Amino acid sequence: MRDRPGPPPPPPADRPQGPAPPSIVGAQAGRDPSIDLADRLLAVRAAEGDDDAFAVLVRRHSSSLLALAHHLLGNRADAEDAVQDSFLAAWRQLPEFRHSASFGTWMYRIVTNRCLNARRRPRALPLDAVAEPAARDAGSSPPRVAETDAATAALSQALRELTPEQRACWVLRELHGLHYEEIAHVTGTSEQTIRGRLFRARHALQEAMRPWH
């Protein structure tokens, strides 16, 4: 195995030469119908030392991974750190990436594990870390606005009270749209375990949100 002591140098056209990895925070993810195949080819090239190929992967996936980390940690600064560290780990592990899953799913697994293994428990989940409420009509009454805000706060609190594993499964399924098989791969568990965690998470959230139904 070739020694990979650090991340690739940044593309010379964009940044000065040096050992720093490509900037990842705030990059926009782009997707197309052949994204998985394109990612596979880019990952092969990156594993062979093509830092420009890795920078493309970073740009494609950083936005969704940052959203995932924000959902799990509840704090943008912590989420940015988690995603940065995850891309560094991915760069070092590329020679071991066997393409048994897509590159995107592989990155979801790295980020999810890093968030779940965080030493400190997540901070209070801010309102913008959960799904945004529907846009309010200009003529919405103050009581209606207050009710919407209260329901959003209740959902935020209910998500905080889930176990980290249940919250991860719920976020991956309901907010990121992953299939059960993908979630099982991301979390390193069975589909049966995923279904059980989702069942308990949904039940807890339904009970917490019952007053707003």
List descriptors.
single chain; 213 residues; mainly alpha; 8 helices; 0% strand; elongated
Description:
By secondary structure, this protein is an all-alpha fold. The protein contains eight helices and no strands. The protein has helices at residues 35-47, 51-73, 76-93, 103-116, 142-161, 164-175, 180-187, 191-209. The protein is elongated. Residues 8-33 and 124-128 have low confidence and may be disordered.
Based on secondary structure, the structural category is mainly alpha
Helix content: 55-70%
Tell me the Rg in angstroms.
19 Å
The topology string of helices and strands comes to HHHHHHHH
Distance between the termini: 57 Å
Strand content: under 5%
Indicate the multimeric state: single chain
What is the approximate shape?
Answer: elongated
Total beta strand runs: 0
Q: Please outline the major beta sheet.
A: none
Question: What's the gist of this structure?
Answer:
The protein is an all-alpha fold and 213 residues long. It has 8 helices and no strands.
Describe the protein's topology.
Layout: H1 35-47, H2 51-73, H3 76-93, H4 103-116, H5 142-161, H6 164-175, H7 180-187, H8 191-209
Helix pairs in contact: 1-2, 2-3, 2-4, 3-4, 4-7, 5-8, 6-8, 7-8
